[in-house]
Amino acid sequence: MDNRPSPTAPFWKRNIYRVVFEADTRAGQLFDILLLLAIVLSVLAVMLESVSSINAQYGPALRVVEWVFTGVFLVEYLMRLLVVRRPLHYALSWLGLVDLLAVVPSLLALVMVGSRYLLVVRTVRLLRVFRIFKLGQFIGEGEFILSALKASRFKILVFLSSLFTLAILMGTFMYVLEGGENGFTSIPKSVYWAVVTLTTVGYGDISPTTILGQTLATLLMIMGYAIIAVPTGIVSAQMSRNAAASATAAAGAAAAVAEATAAPAAPAYKQARCPRCQSAGHRPDAGFCWNCGGPV
């Protein structure tokens, strides 16, 4: 439902709405670009503050910068609430919650140590770049992928369940083969090793040392490459089916439109000639000759 201010709203409210919510005007594009720049700089300040050497020298300045940007985002959020027709509807929407997250971590930092580092969630607001540069078709492509994932969810669930079972079995076997003296001190830790190996991550913090353990690890590594291909194949096949269904639906719609707009076909005429006068061109339902009146 449209959340624009009513036509009878004050001019300033309608004008601010066009600037902060619409990117099809020069002022709206400029506002969004400046907003993206502020988001990038604020996140950069938070990231630099986490570096000990930089924090020791520039920590106070970075915190001032952080609070300045927090004030800017707070004013922007309140301004959005002010100009929409239904403020609560906007506040509870996805974009409204994301905009609120740009401010909340700084306020939480007043009572919770370290909460300000959650300000990196501001990067989610960078998705506004799709709206600014008219990249809406990429959002459509994202929805296409999401629909394929949704249609494949049961197959993926079966695959993940099988993978979880395999990781438990392999982890237990490795715990029995290697034991605590080789780093496999418990079944959960051995299952962790199995997951790391199956996903081909390979941190290297735990590794088997016995021949049987190394043989099992080798098999698990080879299986890992095959496992990576399974969900990719599932989703790719579903995307192909969705694309084929969309193409078929589009072709059917085009054929229906063409049929509806096509000129009516001319009535067919009999090719038989009148046996009396040899005239042709009779209608299919004609019983008598149009020229002489004789039966045809």
TrEMBL record:
Bilayer topology: Multi-pass membrane protein
A Pfam short name: Ion_trans
GO BP, one annotated term: action potential
SUPFAM superfamilies cross-referenced by the UniProt entry: Voltage-gated potassium channels
InterPro entries in the cross-refs: Ion_trans_dom, VG_K_chnl, Volt_channel_dom_sf
Boundaries of every Ion transport domain copy: 29-240
GO terms under cellular component: voltage-gated potassium channel complex
Record's keyword terms, sorted: Ion channel, Ion transport, Membrane, Potassium, Potassium channel, Potassium transport, Transmembrane, Transmembrane helix, Transport, Voltage-gated channel
Subcellular location: Membrane
An example molecular function term from Gene Ontology annotations: voltage-gated potassium channel activity
UniProt xrefs under Gene3D superfamilies: 1.10.287.70, Voltage-gated potassium channels. Chain C
Signal peptide (residue range): none
Highest taxon of the lineage: Bacteria
Main location: membrane
Residues passing through the membrane, by range: 30-48, 60-79, 91-119, 156-177, 211-235
Protein name: Voltage-gated potassium channel
Taxonomic lineage from the root: Bacteria, Pseudomonadati, Bacteroidota, Cytophagia, Cytophagales
